[in-house]
Amino acid sequence: MLPLLQKPPVRLALISGTTLQTEVAAREALDGRRKGVQGFLPFAGPAIMASVGYMDPGNFATNIQAGSTYGYQLLWVVLTANLVAMLFQGMSAKLGIVTRRNLAELCREQFPRPVVAGMWIASEIAAMATDLAEFLGGALGISLLFHVSLLCGLGITGVVTIAILQLDRSGFRPLELVIAALVGVIGLSYLWELFIVPPDWGAALFHTVVPQLHDRSAIALAAAIIGATIMPHTLYLHSGLTQSRTAARNDTERRSVLRFSNREVVIALGFAGLVNLAMVIMSTSLFSKSTPGIADIGVAYHTLVPAIGAGAAGVFLVALIASGIASSAVGTMAGQVIMQGFVGFSVPVWARRLITMVPAFVVALCCNTTSAMILSQVVLSFVLPLPMIALVVLSSRKSVMGDFVMGTRTAFAAVVATVLIVLLNVVLIRQMLT
To answer: Percentage helix, strand, coil, to 5, in the chain?
Structure first.
């Protein structure tokens, strides 16, 4: 195996004061000098960054289609997907904290070379599919809100994303704060939408806990929702973010860091789950009767204008733009982690951003953007089992995790979730072939 690539030391002169303050505060929390919320905040950030992948424009596309086509009936799929996401994002974060290496690096070290090569190729395809949906979504929002061409929206999204990614040069905290602000914009926007369009809460609650899949199209859409919710690239990214944070000096501190991490995963992914549920609920309230089966974000926006007013429809676009820009930046970071971990080298972040912009421009010129976004989520659902299986295997190895090896109940839940997703994909493939 190739030796693991060691990260070069970061020059202190380039680290922002905010990042240094966060590191100092984290050390104080581990030493017992910070308690409660003040002790938790220095460790917050990685799960918030990962949660962006669960609120990206691909979610907008699939959730709008789910609500307009099946009403509240697929809410249980959204809830289930987010619970599974919490489990696996927590496992990914734990892997980085305990081993100080990310998932891709450990795959390269622990698995045979042919398996590693296949996982790298599949992961790069997943990253490209993810980036396509994220990039197109942000550009579409800019195009509709400011009445410019989609190509112009793509250019603006690319420039803004590259600018945000440059914040990482000053340490992790400035970038995390910007992403957290964009996540807040998404959440507030959908809270506002629910106030404007009050749903049938009784029906929504019923379908959130009662599973239903009425036809083949519902199965395909469920697979797309899972692909849009549980993101392969965020499983790699989360371990990469936690591996480079405050280093625990012993097992006691390591357990403390894991507790902080698990709390953040529940809060950040819980928030993302509520946003996804709100998307389906809003789509049901607005589109299921007036324009059933809607699957185009542009059409959805133009339907919103006469239904709830231009201002509220504009809020929908603001959420879409924030989602596209934030998730595009995080997706580019995930691509860097995947490449560096699997093959031991990476390209400059701006170069990767420019390269992954090309498919989006092709789709903008030749294809329906929303259809391409939904199809990309189905692709993600097919790739998803690979990092999930890798996480289960590595988390269960005492040679990797030591005393922090995964417990029996957690392993059982992770295996069941992985098997169900694989079976869902098998059903979807069979449906597509017949």
So the answer is: 80, 0, 20
CATH superfamily, with its number, for domain 46-433: Amino acid/polyamine transporter I (1.20.1740.10)
127 and 334 in contact (C-beta within 8 Å)?
Answer: yes
Q: CA-CA distance, 224 to 333, in Å (whole number)?
A: 23
> Is pLDDT of 392 > 50?
yes
Residues 6+ apart with CB under 8 A from 168: 174, 175, 333, 349
Mean pLDDT of 349-378: 71
Distance CA 158, CA 162 (A): 6
Give residue limits of the domains in the chain: 46-433
Cα 417 from Cα 387, distance rounded (Å): 13
Residues 6+ apart with CB under 8 A from 14: 169, 170, 171
Residue 165 clears pLDDT 50, i.e. is over it? yes
> Higher model confidence: residue 98 or residue 213?
98
Task: Return the SS3 of 148.
Answer: coil
When pLDDT is cut at 50, 70 and 90, the band that residue 420 belongs to is confident
pLDDT at 15: 57
Degrees, nearest 5: CA angle 398-264-11? 80
- b (16+ CB within 10 A) / e for 204-231: beebbeeeebeeeebbbbbbbbbbbbbb
C-alpha–C-alpha distance, residues 158 and 154, integer Å: 6
* Cα distance between residue 304 and residue 134, in whole Å: 22
